[in-house]
Amino acid sequence: MKKKIFYKVVLFILMGNIMFAAGTETNQNTSLEQVKSSITKAKEKIEDNIDKAENTIKAKKGKIDKFISKLKGKSWKLVWDDEFNGDNLDSTKWAYWENGNPWNAGNYVDENGKLVNQYGFDAKHYYLRDNVKVENGNMVITLKKENAKKVNVNGTERKILYSSGAIHTRNLYNVKYGKIEMRAAMPKGIGTWPAFWLWPEGYSQSDGKPAIGEIDIVETDGGEMNRVTGTVHVLRSDNTYESFEGSDYKISKWSKEKLTHFNTYAVEWDDKEIKWLFNNKVYKRFTYKELEKKGLENPFNQPYFIMINVALSKKTGEDGDVDFPTEMKVDYVRVYQKK
């Protein structure tokens, strides 16, 4: 940054000198075009130096980050991942969220124009596999506003308001303990609700009751792009949830960390606690002793499967709340186990 400011000052002084020289040379019949050409060449040279300086800084920062990652990585072994480097979703690792697997795909509008809340939360989206793409090294979920889109619900064509996408590893991959990490860029706009989360192995709506536990590795609210949330939910005997939310990660307005840029989101989960990390920084811990205090059984001692989705909550109101279409981009998902 200091180098960039320095070069801009140099550019300002140099351009001033050129203009001064131009004034002198004008008396010697130097054309205005020659003056402009000199200024342009000087500007290009300085900007080239600025770019070189920035690339040098980025290269040094990259080496430091790589070194830190290498040190931290000595205690972890990569056991499962998807780098999304192909052209299609890998069906040996992921399934689309559809046909009740693992849950209803979303909400639709009935013949009276009323939103049917089969998904829950009065959400306004409906998941479609066409809204999930793998391209340019990312898995991309696109959230769209629909005008006359219809889907088949139990044999009847139903109108939907917004389409989105979701994927999961149910019946394909489960993890018990370890570090589960995603690198992703989040969508923004009031009501956009991307999530990276876990449900117990094999669970689906066909079980006829809520999941006994849920680990939310990350959720973000597109209307509050300075906050990263991670939590766990535990089912009580009355089929309602006890939520352990703790403190969110707060991003200052001066921070270089932007949720629309790529960041890493992870949990480190073992037989004693769960820790949440944002860009490798631990910001929250949950120990199972908190369950004992509430008289709850521990549901986090069994395998869970992975889910990624972008929902649209009922918060979305006016068309200007979200610049549709908007996207969540996932660079990779990785699972590590202790060595």
UniProtKB/TrEMBL annotation:
Q: Which domain of life is it from?
A: Bacteria
Q: Which GO terms describe its biological process?
A: carbohydrate metabolic process
Which residues does the UniProt record annotate as the domain GH16?
A: 74-339
Q: Which UniProt keywords apply?
A: Coiled coil, Hydrolase, Signal
What InterPro entries has UniProt attached to this entry? Beta-glucanase-like, ConA-like_dom_sf, Glycosyl_Hydrlase_16
Signal peptide per UniProt = 1-21
The molecular function terms of the Gene Ontology recorded here are: hydrolase activity, hydrolyzing O-glycosyl compounds
Coiled-coil features, chain-numbered ranges: 32-70
Q: Which SUPFAM superfamilies match?
A: Concanavalin A-like lectins/glucanases (SSF49899)
A Pfam family hit: Glyco_hydro_16
Give the family from UniProt.
Belongs to the glycosyl hydrolase 16 family.
Protein name listed in UniProt: Glycosyl hydrolase family 16
* Lineage of source species: Bacteria, Fusobacteriati, Fusobacteriota, Fusobacteriia, Fusobacteriales
